[in-house]
Design goal:
The two termini are about 40 Å apart. Helix 3 crosses helix 4 and helix 3 packs across helix 9. Strands 5, 7, 8, 9, 10, 16 and 17 form a seven-stranded mixed β-sheet that branches. A five-stranded parallel β-sheet has the order 13-12-11-14-15, sandwiched between helices. It is about 25% helix and about 25% strand. It is an alpha/beta fold.
């Protein structure tokens, strides 16, 4: 990638050391120029994912992600093609697109191979498209790992979270009966989506047995917290359990661990169309301006989100109503910090 010979500023989130949300800063650079085979995307919205904060924290991870400093931040994005490089065919300026580009998504502009992009279908807001890449691919792959269909009774853990809520709805679309664990404040949402909600707690096994007296045929674990061990204790075969969260349990049991790496642009396009058609929903927990990126990640780390947390990079992607949430300081455009009260919704944990 080369930089355009211009003084025009393009913001991006970076970190120069590992740690909590306080390591995130906003820097300015010249607007990048697409090389041959690339397009320039003006980013509108960028999703927040747990993998992001695991990466900038320096936390050891099972997956071999490359990490170096300094680094950009974020993976999911949506936006509009602003320029097309040489040798690019089939794409034009002005098209709305979404996708993923690790370490580069939280920026006003990014350059990318268009093979990694998906067109935003009519009816899908950019704020939702910008949060879809990781959760969409992960949900499709997880459901596909068990070939869920009519007659299945499926337990989905974390059913109100970003991955869980799509996973559960895709199972419902396939004709399965779905039981989902979630915090009590999210139970009404799950019921509306055709999912039988259960609260977390020491009596979860008894609650599952009462909700599914004929037994559970498959378990799709999106949060860990002992779900795999619970499923095995209830007699669910190991090959009918898929976890995208509990690597330790996978080391002890022959359960599956199929996630987003097994799904690509075609699967993303399918999920995007389902959302645009109204067949499934991807709830948005809160939308934050780029300057509040630390606040957005503090909310994600605290586990208080119901649905997806999104960063807005353009005025067309609005900010959510003000709510009170304890969070780190707001980042100024120069990278320094000033005291600030969060602008988030007060949702409960998924």
């Amino acid at each position: 990638m080369t930089l355009a010979p211009t003084d025009a500023a393009s913001r991006r989130v970076v970190f120069h050391r590992f740690g909590g949300p306080e390591v995130l800063e906003i820097e300015h650079r010249a607007v990048p120029r697409p090389a041959a085979g690339e397009v320039l995307v003006r980013v509108a919205a960028a999703g927040v994912n747990p993998v992001d904060w695991k990466l900038f924290s320096g936390e050891p991870m099972h997956d071999p992600y490359e990490r170096s400093l300094p680094s950009g931040n974020g993976y999911d994005f949506s936006g509009t093609i602003e320029a097309v490089g040489d040798d690019v065919t089939g794409w034009r300026t002005g098209e709305e697109v979404f996708g993923g580009l690790r370490y580069h998504a939280q920026a006003d502009h990014l350059v990318i191979d268009p093979a990694l992009l998906v067109r935003v279908p009519e009816g899908l807001p950019l704020v939702v498209a910008g949060a879809l890449n990781v959760v969409g691919r992960t949900a499709v792959a997880s459901v596909g790992s068990q070939r869920i269909g009519a007659g299945d009774v499926v337990l989905v853990s974390g059913a109100a979270g970003g991955v869980g809520i799509l996973t559960a709805q895709l199972c419902v679309l396939r004709g399965a009966r779905v039981i989902g664990t979630a915090g009590p404040r999210n139970h009404a949402l799950l019921r509306r989506l055709g999912i039988h909600p259960l609260a977390y707690g020491d009596d979860l096994a008894d609650a599952v047995r009462a909700a599914a007296p004929g037994g559970i045929t498959a378990v799709l674990d999106t949060v860990g917290h002992g779900t795999v061990d619970l499923a095995l204790a209830m007699g669910v075969p190991a090959d009918r359990i898929n976890t995208v969260a509990d690597y330790e349990a996978r080391s002890r049991h022959p359960v599956r661990g199929i996630g987003g790496a097994k799904a690509g642009a075609r699967e993303l396009a399918m999920v995007a169309q389902l959302i645009a058609d109204g067949s499934v929903e991807l709830p948005i927990d809160s939308v934050h301006p780029l300057e509040d990126v630390r606040i957005a990640y503090a909310r994600s780390i605290a586990g208080h989100a119901s649905g997806k947390i999104v960063i807005s990079l353009t005025p067309s992607v609005g900010i959510t109503p003000t709510g009170e949430f304890a969070a780190p300081q707001r980042v100024t455009s120069a990278g320094s910090a000033t005291p600030f009260r969060a602008s988030t919704t007060g949702a409960s944990s998924g």
